[in-house]
Amino acid sequence: MLFNSIDFAIFLPIVFVLYWFVTNENLNLQNALIVAASYVFYGWWDWRFLSLIIFSTVVDYTVGRKLKNEENQLKRKLLLWTSILVNLGFLGFFKYYNFFLDNFITAFSFFGHDIQPNSLNIILPVGISFYTFQTLSYTIDVYRRKLKPTKDFIAFSAFVSFFPQLVAGPIERATRLLPQFYTKRTFEYTKAVDGMRQILWGLFKKVVIADNCAVFANQIFNNSADMNGSTLVLGALFFTFQIYGDFSGYSDIAIGTARLFGFDLMKNFAFPYFSRDIAEFWRRWHISLSTWFRDYLYIPLGGSRGSNLMKVRNTFVIFVVSGFWHGANWTFIVWGALNAIYFLPLLLTKNNRKNLDVIAQGKHLPSLREFSLMLVTFALTVFAWIFFRAENMGHAISYISGVFSLSLFDFPQFEGVGKALAMMLLLLIFLLIEWNGRSEEYAIAKLGLTWKRPYRYAMYYAFVFAILWLGVNQQEFIYFQF
Predict the structure, then answer these.
(1) Is-above-0.85 flag for pTM?
(2) Of these residues, 113, 326, 364, 395, which one is catalytic?
(3) Is 326 a known active-site residue?
(4) Closest by alpha carbon to 269, among 288, 295, 256?
């Protein structure tokens, strides 16, 4: 079920009414309703894949219960690896089977051996990368004794399948989200209004910004061989805003929807395109995944401790794995490795934690130095996104070759260039709104709150009108494929 669909517009009010007006007196019933609603929400795509979520839930709940009273370290490790192998086994099969098979065939062909193994027509279950990591956090934290295993199977099932963030995050930790299912929730009007405001902004980012940028990004990337250099740069810029509006828009809708039901989800994006270096960018982009890899992979490997060689190794491991998490394609691996190359000079010179504050805090405009750093970081990010968007490595290389050609200085030429330039103007307005709200949880969190009511509601209606008027190019959320 898509957030930007009529189905969800009907589904959400029904669940909301049942949650607050029918089951509100019984916490267990509320949690059971969340589980049922989540299964309906997920099963809307393909009910068969519900079995994966349910099986993963049962395995990790059982492992957690057994870890509670198990003191033998060997048996504890066996239980932990049972959970890891089951979860990553499902993920590996559905997401990476054909990738490894194709590369296996290519490797043998290189040495003159022609083999014909059977490939499988595997459908990737929506959101498997997200809920797999979420449930793994529970097992690992129980193993580390950072979290007591739950006895409440319904609450645990609700934690694993919580529909607002089930499909594309944020990837919540059990230590943070699971306890919220144990606590009685009471309806708070101001919290619900704030949630609706964040949903509105998320829909605007998705429907108005991302989906309309996608039209031009797809047109240019799909016909890149026929485009001049300046047009290719424009295509990369459109994809840069498409993926941000698409993914951060999903997170805003998820966080706002959860708030309607009395839950607080972690912030997943913190205005990453205003970053002054790549380290800051990765503290602000897909925060839930970045911190997951930091806590469960990077730090166990040694983190930034030890020799420079270890730092380089650990950095490449975390970025390459992060790239591979995004998809079974060499383009994602190169995208991850490229970001590691960006990041390493900052790490090795101990400047990776230099920019921890909000840029131009308390000011209307950044300094010339801040603006220059922000521009350089943004340019590096745009360049890396080319690999992320390209169909394969050959496409990425030809695209980049086209960018760095003499035609880079020509005027962009493609069908619809006038509309594309108008879209750039809309992006400028979008950036101004984001810049104005860069210190808040989301861009319009405080926008208009001090205005007179008619003006404030006029702003909300303007967003709604833009969503209805410009929301004609509906696209599936990009991260559904991950």
Answers:
(1) yes
(2) 326
(3) yes
(4) 288
